[in-house]
Amino acid sequence: MSNKAVLLSNSGKPYINLSLRDRTGQVECRVWDRADEIAKRFERDDIVEVSGSAIQYQGRIQLKVHDVRRAEGEADLADFLPVTRKGIEPLWEELQALVKGIADRDLSRLLRRVFPDPPKTETARRFRQAPGGKSMHHDYIGGLLEHTVSVAAICRFLAGHYEKVDADMLLSGALLHDIGKVGELSYEGAFEYTDEGRLLGHLYMGAEWVAAECARIEGFPADKAMLLKHMILSHHGELEYGSPKRPKTLEAVLLHFVENMDSKANAFLEAMEDLREGAIWTDYQRMFERYLFAGKKK
Amino acid sequence: MSNKAVLLSNSGKPYINLSLRDRTGQVECRVWDRADEIAKRFERDDIVEVSGSAIQYQGRIQLKVHDVRRAEGEADLADFLPVTRKGIEPLWEELQALVKGIADRDLSRLLRRVFPDPPKTETARRFRQAPGGKSMHHDYIGGLLEHTVSVAAICRFLAGHYEKVDADMLLSGALLHDIGKVGELSYEGAFEYTDEGRLLGHLYMGAEWVAAECARIEGFPADKAMLLKHMILSHHGELEYGSPKRPKTLEAVLLHFVENMDSKANAFLEAMEDLREGAIWTDYQRMFERYLFAGKKK
Amino acid sequence: MSNKAVLLSNSGKPYINLSLRDRTGQVECRVWDRADEIAKRFERDDIVEVSGSAIQYQGRIQLKVHDVRRAEGEADLADFLPVTRKGIEPLWEELQALVKGIADRDLSRLLRRVFPDPPKTETARRFRQAPGGKSMHHDYIGGLLEHTVSVAAICRFLAGHYEKVDADMLLSGALLHDIGKVGELSYEGAFEYTDEGRLLGHLYMGAEWVAAECARIEGFPADKAMLLKHMILSHHGELEYGSPKRPKTLEAVLLHFVENMDSKANAFLEAMEDLREGAIWTDYQRMFERYLFAGKKK
Amino acid sequence: MSNKAVLLSNSGKPYINLSLRDRTGQVECRVWDRADEIAKRFERDDIVEVSGSAIQYQGRIQLKVHDVRRAEGEADLADFLPVTRKGIEPLWEELQALVKGIADRDLSRLLRRVFPDPPKTETARRFRQAPGGKSMHHDYIGGLLEHTVSVAAICRFLAGHYEKVDADMLLSGALLHDIGKVGELSYEGAFEYTDEGRLLGHLYMGAEWVAAECARIEGFPADKAMLLKHMILSHHGELEYGSPKRPKTLEAVLLHFVENMDSKANAFLEAMEDLREGAIWTDYQRMFERYLFAGKKK
Amino acid sequence: MSNKAVLLSNSGKPYINLSLRDRTGQVECRVWDRADEIAKRFERDDIVEVSGSAIQYQGRIQLKVHDVRRAEGEADLADFLPVTRKGIEPLWEELQALVKGIADRDLSRLLRRVFPDPPKTETARRFRQAPGGKSMHHDYIGGLLEHTVSVAAICRFLAGHYEKVDADMLLSGALLHDIGKVGELSYEGAFEYTDEGRLLGHLYMGAEWVAAECARIEGFPADKAMLLKHMILSHHGELEYGSPKRPKTLEAVLLHFVENMDSKANAFLEAMEDLREGAIWTDYQRMFERYLFAGKKK
Amino acid sequence: MSNKAVLLSNSGKPYINLSLRDRTGQVECRVWDRADEIAKRFERDDIVEVSGSAIQYQGRIQLKVHDVRRAEGEADLADFLPVTRKGIEPLWEELQALVKGIADRDLSRLLRRVFPDPPKTETARRFRQAPGGKSMHHDYIGGLLEHTVSVAAICRFLAGHYEKVDADMLLSGALLHDIGKVGELSYEGAFEYTDEGRLLGHLYMGAEWVAAECARIEGFPADKAMLLKHMILSHHGELEYGSPKRPKTLEAVLLHFVENMDSKANAFLEAMEDLREGAIWTDYQRMFERYLFAGKKK
């Protein structure tokens, strides 16, 4: 359940507004009877069982709920939160293939350490589950993994397309650029920022974390650590988007563009999924600050 | 010759400042003797023959010129202006291969008309020669062709990478996006904006030109013309960069990112070419508004 | 009807929210009974007949609607949409007088072709009906005509006020500057942007259309067409307001200021019309991003 | 003399750079001999007599000066500073006619007091001489008067063009809007800001001055004083242009547009005056942040 | 009562939404019965007596109101509006101590005139009552006094901390910087801007008022008046925040920072007061455009 | 020597432009004779011995240099670079007193570790020498120490002035906020950014360094480390000034204001030091983007 509010109806009677969410999407619900009693049984972000009947209004389902109770036993989060359509396992395999493509010995050691196969570390396990964002793009379980793999695959192509690119550095930066999101967002229940996420942000958290990992690898060259941290810190491209430094290496410049493009492309594709029946324009997209043209269906 | 100025020395004697340019680069010159007489022999942007001796100061050559005269007969511009290192013929062949990859019958007809092989139209001939910009990026003969081919090749990759992309539309937009530059810049001599270029700009000029070409193809669908024009007009991405509309289709969004990235990547690579002896940071880059890190040479 | 929404009341019963609009203004309505049945009878933007009773709350009328049915036969749109208070015929005559004042032979031919009297072309007919905007200013039938005539009349004055102004060019630009709005907005029913309007915009559409008209006039000088297109493209004054080029001719500079001032003056006067009983300050005006002072009534 | 600098030539010998200015324009000069001795004779902004010979370089005159001495006796400033081409007397008469057109008794009393005919007050005398700006527009003796009359004449036209305009208030605001410039700029010698001009600015100074004048007129209505002060304070239109409040009355909105347009039109016309021989584009105009198109001469 | 709205419930029955406010805070109320009758008895901003019963929802009290009637006799505003927790009298004494610390004879005379003790002038009386703002910071009775004293105390510290500060000038500017708010806001009932406040603003009003006060003191030096007015006009720091001039004296620079910091610190402390039960983050703060971290309670 | 350039005089003869700098200031020099030979003897940023004669032009000294040679033996940098007028030792003592005032046991341990007395660590030694900036403010040896002490002293005052401030946290943040500058700037010779300084910046470097220090203190609480890092990262106040997060705690908000004010106050005082003879306005100040008013000398 991603939202819960007890309200007072105009006749002075309390009722509950709920948003229920599972992996297929989200639905608005209202509990009209015994609201006070039922409201005490659960909290926001709990996994719940619900009985009720559906009504359709204006092309959207609304649920009139009769009863709600907390789910017993261990429920699998992935059953109740939206999950990447591409599958966590296939994406993980693709990521492993990208890691294996890194020839530079130092970077290869670092990446194998961060992304061990099987994913036995806490970070690796969380990395596979984490969403790519709170609401803007890749906002589903496995979204961070999907985004990372997509960015890295495009970067691999560009390393061959342009001259003078340090392919291993670009690919490593692509794979690590959002690692800080593992700690910036909590996703047990709804996606929320952690205190550290709000006060420090995933750019800083990622760079600090990479600094600490590099320090644990004996003989890891200082300049490679510096270039990786630069790529992480600068990947938002401009100061006003939260990067404390703008990209100043060729690899950082390319990563910024690819990262930005992939976020926007994903958001565009998601908006096309949400298209209203018969519409050729999406609803207003806050991320783009515009309506998007989905085009005529054939 | 890309610059000419007659100045008065402190001792009250006139001298001439020249910038000479050929395909390998540019050099500053000074004519100390007979400045008034020599100055009358030629104009800025003329092709000239020069005799003189070179002095090296601070890692840069300066030429002390004894005599200057206008070149006689027909000189080949490409001998005197910087030219793409990738070669116009190989790039043209790559462009033809990209055009051949377009399956949509309407778009294919349009593209073959715009880029006939051999390049028998005035537009096609100018398109092969034109620079990609006045000074910011791809500012050499064949630069527009090089930029177009690079953008289109990346777009072709992305059409396979992302779902739901209209590959033919994206590729067509990529190939046509800067066609207006054929008329925005003159490049007989130094690169300069035309009156039309300054008053209307290459976005408008390109879209209007595509509109006219589509109108000449019987039965060309209005919505495809509209989508192409949208891609051309919106490829600068934001109003403040001169696009009267921001990208609103998936193809326009992708094209904008690729186009921007390719301009920046080319400018970065050019800045690395100009690196001073022993430097690891470039001079200040106006396009990036920052210094760029070229990295340690191995 | 400019808005229709079926909602669920707190007691779980559906009701309908409507906005009805005729030439005198707009009123909010609610259908409490038989909402499902009634909702099926009509769509948004239909012309409808309504029975109900009015209630006044907080100085605004609200309608409690008993029944709604679609209007039969051909209804005249102008009866149901707000229309310019100045009258379409008087404005058209004023426009014709302005056109007759153009001495330059080329421009005169162009303008007579665009605005034939009587208005026998589709463009001329639509130009007389079109609103000047969706909601910001001149948002009523005939608004485009009213705005155009007002701008042109001020420009005629300025052509006499300042030296060195090309009076015919300024007047022609004023008369043509918003011609693209004929295709940018649809006004059958509520005012809405067309697909082309959203993807290309009225600046581009107007310039392309003028380009095509000029091409159809034998011997129309290229530089005059270029200057006209520049005025149309630059009349928003700044890139961030959607002009791909800023004004660079004296006539374009003047047109921009007059056009902007006339839009704002109209919006100010409309806001004064909407003043609440007894108020001396208007409601918050989004176009101005401020409250406006209407002043004390005598 | 508007500029004076003693410099050291490369051979270690001092020389003087001067800018001489009279009503027809400005010329660069150099004193090569006896620089130290000559430099002591005069200060920047002095009126001087000069002997020397002219050299022409690149279409501009440069003066090689042999001797300089301070002018003796009383020289008339207007002989040495650029002056409005329209003549101070004709402009003053036009202003008096505008003042006479004000019907409102309170405003009429105020305006006759501020602009007495003949101009017997210090303020009126300075108002007739003051430049309209330091360098951007109307930067010549009488420029403030010329600008004021032009703005007021356009406002008088607009008062008839639009409904609901308080014509007397608009005209009064137009005539008073830049009155603070009388104290913001000094123009004895080169145009310079006064301390008060830099610390308080002409918007504040004008409004405070009008407040004081109104206070001296018995029974002057407080709300009319408030509206006048609002017009003066808001005439730059936006906070970032130095207006502490944006225009919120119809008259203030119109005044802002007219005032801005007139400044730009004057700057455009001045730039056309300065056009280089044969050029159709002006030099880069800092006020417009662009090159302007002067067009082909017939 | 700071807000009153008669609304129509979904069942078509009118009810009243009220916001009641006293010095301890604000509470939302609803009148469900006899709404039409009760609504006629009072207006927004009246002082009222209310009977009803409280319900708690989501950690906030809501009042179900049975009856409302206007308060009879003279009620003390300070009983019903929020008041500074620091007490008006102690703050006034602190202000008097600060005034007494001014050694400069001119400034001392001015300040004693503006803030006489006891506060016998209308301005002094209003200054003690006025809020520091409408809603952003210090929005309670005595808020202006509290803010002024806080700013002045910090400035007194800084005058000792930094070299070359004119302590008397800095302190005088601090004490006078917001004097214009006395007339910008009305606070009889809810806090609202006056017409003059909206059209001229407290920066202008304060400077004009100080100018007039200085003019009434014989022999008050013009340059001290100018520096005081500069501090008042520039204390918002940037043009876009409504200062027509940016700070250009050391005292004005310091005052701007202190004034800004004190507003933000007060707003932060107020937001911490409003913290929801158990929360460690505040609600979204419009003034800061972010959520604030209140930290863990021990 | 802070600058060295070999140029070609108009007569074709090479000469050298030098800027010599010692603790008292900077002077421009020219070497006219034997330039080629002399130029080979030294590099930019070397400490040199110079013989020559001084000439005064326009209130500034210029040096005509006869000979230059590199200084032999170990020269003390502090003799040749400008140094804080307040003395490094007194400032260090003041800092130690501030550190001793921290009561919180964790923070006290951290601060004593970072600033050991005597300064036996490399960091502490560099911290005492480092400039506060490259050119904007506190750009002299000991400037970082002076700035830190000044900011911390003001913060200590504010901790007593405002309620609810965590005094120890605020003081610790003040003392550590610029610790990253120890590695961002090199000051052996002229002040220059290091590679790490340009690619990562002192905000990131300081936070990472504090993170590492905290990690070395057993049992250092994670939330205190987080709050310290937040203060360091956010002290520039806005994203566009390079802070990846804006201040979200009361202590971070206060620190940001004090830090900004102290930088500006120092820059203002430095500009007053550089005042030209007789001037009351400073030269244009790039940091303020304005001229500053130094006021009349008594």
> Helical segment tally of chain A?
12
Strand-residue fraction of chain A?
15-25%
Calculate Rg of chain A over CA atoms: 22 Å
Q: Approximately how much helix is present in the residues of chain A?
A: 40-55%
Instruction: Give the overall pLDDT of chain A as a whole number.
Output: 88
Shape of chain A: elongated
Give the SSE string of chain A: EEEHEEHHHHHHHEEHHHH
Distance between the termini of chain A: 37 Å
What structural class is derived from the secondary structure elements of chain A? alpha+beta
Total beta strands of chain A: 7
Largest sheet of chain A: 5 strands, mixed
Most extensive interface: pair and counts?
C-D, 33 and 34 residues
How would you write the strand order of the largest sheet of chain A? 1-2-3-5-4
State the low-pLDDT regions of chain A, or none.
none
What kind of oligomer do you see? homohexamer
Give a quick summary of the entry.
Six copies of one chain form a homohexamer. The first copy, chain A, has 298 residues and is of the alpha+beta class. Chain A contains twelve helices and seven strands.
Fold and architecture overview:
6 copies of one chain form a homohexamer. Chain A is α+β, with helices and mostly antiparallel strands. Helix content of chain A is 44%, strand content 16%. Chain A has 12 helices and 7 strands. Chain A has helices at 35-39, 77-80, 88-100, 105-114, 122-129, 143-161, 167-176, 181-184, 195-199, 201-216, 222-234, 250-273; strands at 3-8, 14-22, 25-31, 48-57, 60-70, 185-186, 192-193. In chain A, the strands form 2 sheets. Chain A has a 5-stranded mixed β-sheet. A two-stranded antiparallel ribbon of chain A has the order 6-7. In chain A, β4 and β5 form a beta hairpin. The first copy, chain A, starts with a strand and ends in a 25-residue tail after the last helix. The mean pLDDT of chain A is 88. Chains in contact: A-B, A-C, A-E, A-F, B-C, B-D, B-F, C-D, C-E, D-E, D-F, E-F. Chain B binds chain C through residues 195-196, 198-201, 203-204, 207-208, 211, 223, 226-227, 229-230, 233, 239-245, 248-249, and chain C through 195-196, 198-201, 203-204, 207-208, 211, 226-227, 229-230, 233, 239-245, 248-249.
